[in-house]
Amino acid sequence: MFATGAAAQAPDADEAAKPKSAQEILDASPDAHWRALDPANTLYMELDAGRVVIELAPQFAPRHVGNIRALAREGFWDGLSIYRSQDNFVVQFGDPTEEEADRKPLGSAEAHLPAEFERPAAGLEFTALPDADGWAPQVGFVDGFPAGRDPDTGTAWMAHCYGALGAGRDMAADSSTGAELYVVTGQSPRQLDRNITVVGRVVDGIELLSVIPRGRDPMGFYEDPAERTPIKAIRLASEVPPSERSQLEVLRTDSPTFAAATEARRNRRDDWYKVPAGHIDLCNVPLPVREADD
Amino acid sequence: MFATGAAAQAPDADEAAKPKSAQEILDASPDAHWRALDPANTLYMELDAGRVVIELAPQFAPRHVGNIRALAREGFWDGLSIYRSQDNFVVQFGDPTEEEADRKPLGSAEAHLPAEFERPAAGLEFTALPDADGWAPQVGFVDGFPAGRDPDTGTAWMAHCYGALGAGRDMAADSSTGAELYVVTGQSPRQLDRNITVVGRVVDGIELLSVIPRGRDPMGFYEDPAERTPIKAIRLASEVPPSERSQLEVLRTDSPTFAAATEARRNRRDDWYKVPAGHIDLCNVPLPVREADD
């Protein structure tokens, strides 16, 4: 009995002694630490290569998200293209027509919006990282979005990490409408933080955007329009029949599972790593996504 | 005469008042601030899509670079492939055969090398950045390579920035030979610093690697070998006829031009930027390359 008991317990005791990997922490997570995407704030970008799923952030950019919802509802991007792919930076899509008068009409979307570069931090649940950051006084996550915060000014803003969706603009801060959008496909260009309105992030399918051939122009625009990647459609998930929706869940960034998985990445304790970093950068923190169980 | 003089000088005066952009600084740089690549430390990876130019770093990984030179000279990678592409992380190439005994022979390259994760900082010209970094006590550049340094231990190491070339290894620190190599194609995985031997960096043609379709396996390996990207050849530039060499020059990272261009990026003063970041991350610093004049 004793021998059997000892044998049965030994693996558990070993298990307890060995720190869990991020994957083991995720595998053991309770369902309550995950949340489904809100269909009213989810965009599907349909490409020949498949679907890119985007979560919008009305808590940071309500006016832009309002416009993007209207544009998606009215099929603004359908038949347009990804017309820019700059290596280690962004892909950009919308209507590249030079002359504003010749561009596809915005329909019921507003032609002019305020800049939404930052907002009051009050009212946001901000899960701060303990890690130092060179770009912002504090960094962390708000509802799954990587974000910066400044206690002195009381403001918060979304950070330009890999997969961030931003609203292209001209010289004036308030010249974006949400019709021209870009997704970060390279090393996080955090110098853009607070200089442009971030409207969401890619949750799934970023690998369909990151492999798009780069344009030869220094900024990644294509010389030949035939090189552009056609957009079949961009739709709000709420306007797609439920049977055609992606059933995705994202890990809550305010959950103990997220904190534990991030710590397991900050200090890798597996046998492969010889020197744990003792640090993680905001844009290196994985944001887990999974298929929902039926 | 006065009026003419004033008119002629006015643009110069304006010019002096307006801070120069990084591009303007580069355009005005003296030739002495640039250097040609050393053909003995330059690799050409020939793909169907074109040439990737890699600079090796014998000052950091002399034994690995010695092996890589031997492997290139003997055509080790010719006919092998890029067999892994993991989104926002790396592409990896070499011989993916599971059984070591069945792998392509290493020829005159050594079968066992020491780990070369770091080296004494003494003897390196380290151009430090003033910017805070969460991963290393100090960061900067050594001969064009992004690097970290620890004054307490007196060591320095190459950093995993976009384009870094590293030597894949198994569990043991000293299990890399340089035959299996990877290139960083995503957000800089600095947690790998000091955990693996970095051997160089891509200087030109990274956009041929970064667009390679991602493997479906979670680590980016391809299920079907037909999905792999064939490698036509990897050659040392010194073994390629001069007429077939790429004529590239890189900006010296110990030059005043590099310091000024980096400062112009740290604090963007052009009209588009509304909030200069006041910071730049090691892996966000551009490393300019140009075609040499004939």
Task: Name its key features.
homodimer, 294 residues, alpha+beta, nine-stranded antiparallel β-sheet, disordered N terminus, Cyclophilin-type_PPIase_dom (chains A, B), peptidyl-prolyl cis-trans isomerase activity (chains A, B), EC 5.2.1.8 (chains A, B), isomerase (chains A, B)
Would you kindly provide a written description of the structure presented here, covering whatever features stand out?
The structure is a homodimer of 294-residue chains. By secondary structure, chain A is of the alpha+beta class. The first copy, chain A, is built from five helices and 17 strands. In chain A, the strands form three sheets. A nine-stranded antiparallel beta sheet of chain A has the order 14-4-5-12-11-13-3-2-15. A five-stranded antiparallel beta sheet of chain A has the order 6-10-9-8-7, with no helix packed on it. Chain A has a single domain (19-291), classed as Cyclophilin-like (Cyclophilin), CATH 2.40.100.10.
Question: Can you summarize the main beta sheet of chain A?
Answer: 9 strands, antiparallel
Topology as H/E string of chain A?
HHEEEHEEEEEEEEEEHEEEHE
CATH architectural designation of chain A? Beta Barrel
List low-pLDDT spans of chain A: 1-11
CATH fold group of chain A: Cyclophilin
Number of domains of chain A: 1
Average pLDDT over all residues of chain A: 94
Structural class label of chain A: alpha+beta
The helicity of chain A comes to 10-25%
Physical arrangement of strands within the biggest beta sheet of chain A: 14-4-5-12-11-13-3-2-15
CATH class of chain A: Mainly Beta
Euclidean distance between termini CA atoms of chain A: 42 Å
Question: Hey, which two chains have the biggest interface?
Answer: A-B, 41 and 41 residues
CATH homologous superfamily label of chain A:
Cyclophilin-like
The total count of helices of chain A amounts to: 5
